[in-house]
Each structure stands twice: as C-alpha cells, then as structure tokens.
Amino acid sequence: MGTKIVNRIMLIAGLISLLHSAFSAAHHRTYLRLTEQDWTRLPLDIVVQIVVSLLVVVYNLIQVVGNFKEIRATVDMQEKSWDTLGNLPSFYTFNHRGMALYQNYEPEESSSAGGSKSNLDVDY
C-alpha cells in the first residue's frame, strides 16, 4: 500500500513539473518576442525538464493504474466453449424483411417432440 501512495505523489509531482515546463516554454517564447530575437529552439534545461517529467508521469501512471489485461485474444478465448464463441446476441434480428414477404405467416407451436423439421425451415 505504501508504494501506491509514493507513486501517486510522484505522478502528481510529474504532472506539476510538466505543467511548469510548458509554462516555461511559453514564457521563453514571449521573452524572445519582446527582445525581437529569432526562435531557434528551447533552452536545454526546459527540454530536459520536459523529458524527465514525461518519463516520471508515464512510469508512475502505469504503476498507479494496476494490472493490464493481455492483448492477445486467445487468453480470453481459452475459457469459452465452442458453443459460446458463435453466440452474438447483439446480432439477433427478429424484425426483418421476411415478415413483409410472408404476411400470412403463422409460426408453428414449438413442440418438445423434436421433429425432423425446425422452426426456421420454410416450405416453398
């Protein structure tokens, strides 16, 4: 628990340092305009502060967030059976153009006798 608190403090310090470096870069640009000097690049201390702050923020953000899931799909799919892999309820469609083609269609009563014909078979 102690390392999480240290990581959060370092994350906040890194964000503050990153904001400070952005402010310093804007202040440097304003200084160059006022003194009518050409813009060449940021001073080395601002660049170093940006890079170090960014590294601190990224590292501590990863530590604070916690465990990541595997990117590979096979890790999640290993626990599923073949029957559930093809089951996509979001793609079920009950109101489709077949209703307009067969306006007098009356669905058969589903029986548990298990006849050779399913409810999806249509006689032409």
UniProtKB/TrEMBL annotation:
Assigned keywords, A-Z: Endoplasmic reticulum, Endosome, Golgi apparatus, Magnesium, Membrane, Transmembrane, Transmembrane helix, Transport
Transmembrane segments: 42-62
Location in the cell: Endoplasmic reticulum membrane; Golgi apparatus membrane; Early endosome membrane
One Gene Ontology term of the molecular function aspect: inorganic cation transmembrane transporter activity
Top-level lineage group: Eukaryota
Membrane topology reported for the UniProt record: Multi-pass membrane protein
Principal subcellular localization: endoplasmic reticulum
GO cellular component: early endosome membrane; EMC complex; Golgi membrane; plasma membrane
InterPro entries: MMgT (IPR018937)
Family: Belongs to the membrane magnesium transporter (TC 1.A.67) family.
The protein's role, per its UniProt record: Part of the endoplasmic reticulum membrane protein complex (EMC) that enables the energy-independent insertion into endoplasmic reticulum membranes of newly synthesized membrane proteins. May be involved in Mg(2+) transport.
Self-association state and partner proteins as the record states: Component of the ER membrane protein complex (EMC).
Entry protein name: Membrane magnesium transporter
